[in-house]
Structure prediction request, 383 residues.
Amino acid sequence: MLNKICITASLILLTLSPLQADEIKLNADQPDSYVVQEGDTLWDISSKFLQEPWRWPEIWQVNPQIADPHLIYPGDQISLSYQDGSPVLTVNRDGSRSSMSRRSGRNVKLSPGIRSSENADAIPTIPIDVIEQFLVRPLVVSDTEMDDWPYIVSTYDNHLIAANGNRVYVRGLSGSARSERFSIYRKGPAYQSGSEGNLETIGYEALHVADAIIERTGDPATAVIVNSTREVLAGDRLVAQSTTDVSTDFIPRSPDNSINGSIISVIDGVSEIGQYQVVVLDVGESDGIENGNVVGVFQSGAIISDRVNVTSDWRVREKGKGVFDGEAFKDYLGRKQAAGEDVQLPEEYAAVVMVFRTFGRISYGLVMEATAPIHLNDMVRNL
Prediction:
């Protein structure tokens, strides 16, 4: 279904925001060159050279002598060099891979290119297979958005549930044709943003239940369930599957706006979140978030009790003079130390997330790197 990942070379010439304009930092142990392997991504390769791999568009430049966009393939050798004192990544090809490679010569500047069925061997920017299902399904809906969708009115023999291979009857499918494919959804939990006691619902998860193929048109129409992931129930809603290719531009870059949000959900409901897991953020298109935007995840510092400083505090010592003596003063200090002083530890950077799909007030992001376990309600903002 997903057979076209479009990464346009023109996006390499991004206008950098002030947040992006600082110096590129290379890894201390970065190699002079690297040979691309099967399973690599552009992000993986960049992380071998850069401390901040999402900034690779800033040093992968367009070669003005080459009209065609360029793709990176397994076997290509990537080298680090300098141009006017700034780092530049280039790729060396043996000239035998394709007519495009032969025309381009053996040493071309790296630039994002077009990935399609014609060049399926080219490596992607990020692991597309991890997020493919999230690119082709409407995963966030408003409170009433699904109310007008066609719905399952009954299952075959009036059974309570249906699964793969079962027939169901659907109302509201006017104009549908035999063999047309639909996806079946159920409105799921609310996505909420804000602090405890002041939560606001900003959308609902649309739970994918199954797919269906129309077997007989009419009102009700007859459909056959396929690819079920949950039990299909009367009242579940249908939406026609898109027949167009999904096209995405995943050129990593900092958001143009100042972003302040949090992680409000994690797909599959795990309690600790790591690399290549999909998270739901409470910032979206209305906040200026776009596909490809990179944000950092930060964890609030814990509040701890400082029991060391209180006994050396001058106020404790002064209060003890002439007020307590002997065992009474010891008891006072013991109680003071046991209570301690509340201290807020500084927040800590935990991960990098790249946004790959946006909605009005919500976005979906892929955890690209994690230095610590990530949790719900961790903060997300510009790096």
